[in-house]
Design a protein that fits this description.
Elements: H1 3-15, H2 23-36, H3 40-44, E1 45-48, E2 56-57, E3 68-74, E4 77-87, E5 92-96, E6 103-106, E7 111-115, E8 121-124, E9 138-143, E10 148-159, E11 168-179, E12 184-186, H4 190-197, H5 201-207, H6 219-240
Parallel strand pairs: 2-11
Antiparallel strand pairs: 1-6, 3-4, 3-7, 4-5, 5-6, 7-8, 8-9, 9-10, 10-11, 11-12
Helix pairs in contact: 4-6
């Protein structure tokens, strides 16, 4: 297959879905792309994605197992309405070839960030390579502040203990971190989270716990509220000065 044909096919994946809504924007993206990325397939395609085993119960993706429209930023160029799947077992982002109906891997090192159909936003971050599940370094950006709240989604495979239709199944996890732009701080307990953000315990009780938000019940909501409280506290201190 010659480069020009394959190039055109991949442009279709990233550009065509949104033409009905914003022709001028997408044409501008395409023109910029033609100018700056002469061989797009060499930048984006990491090969064909291998579908998960059929004898595994469930799926390795973060959301459903069907492609849905998201957004993608590659080499600082933003592409809206891209068909995406996010495999969190291997930390791989997948798109769909529109002509050959092949699932294609997007090279992780070329990805700045992406968002999924549920509006969750992800960035590729470096500096946490010692973390077991870092893999390609995609983290969800949950809340921004003096310390950003981010999380790592991943799935592991659990072998079935009983004979049946499935050999194994997927188990999903989410680990939380505070991130200051260079360093990752694992959040493993409520006490550690409060210490890292330096929020007064009394303020936590009055503004978070009294609202029925508890770390052990809903870590995501508790930590998100804690970051928002930390932002407010920092803002008030700055105003007092």
């Amino acid at each position: 297959m010659n480069k020009s044909f394959f190039l055109l096919a991949l442009i279709w994946v990233l550009v065509v879905p949104a033409f009905g809504q914003s022709n001028s924007l997408e044409v501008n993206n395409l023109e910029r792309y033609k100018e700056e990325l002469p061989y797009f397939q060499e930048l984006i395609t990491g090969g064909q994605y291998t579908n998960p085993p059929q004898n595994y119960e469930g799926y390795p993706y973060l959301l459903g197992k069907s492609f849905e429209l998201g957004t993608l930023t590659i080499n600082q160029i933003y592409y809206p309405e891209v068909l995406l799947l996010y495999d969190i077992r291997y930390d791989q982002l997948i798109t769909l070839h529109p002509i050959f109906s092949q699932n294609l891997l997007i090279k992780p090192e070329k990805i700045n960030g992406f968002s999924l159909s549920n509006l969750s936003s992800f960035q590729r971050l470096i500096g946490n390579e010692s973390y077991l599940y870092n893999q390609n370094g995609f983290y969800e950006i949950i809340e921004e502040g003096k310390m950003n709240l981010i999380s790592k989604h991943y799935k592991t495979v659990v072998r079935s203990k009983e004979l049946g239709d499935y050999f194994a199944s997927y188990e999903e996890f989410e680990d939380f971190f505070f991130y200051d732009g260079s360093e990752f701080f694992p959040v493993t307990s409520k006490k550690k989270a409060i210490q890292l953000l330096d929020v007064p315990k009394k303020s936590v009780r009055e503004n978070i716990i009294k609202r029925g938000i508890y770390f052990n019940r809903d870590k995501r909501e508790f930590l998100k509220s804690l970051v928002l409280l930390s932002n407010t506290t920092s803002s008030n201190l700055s105003n007092d000065e």
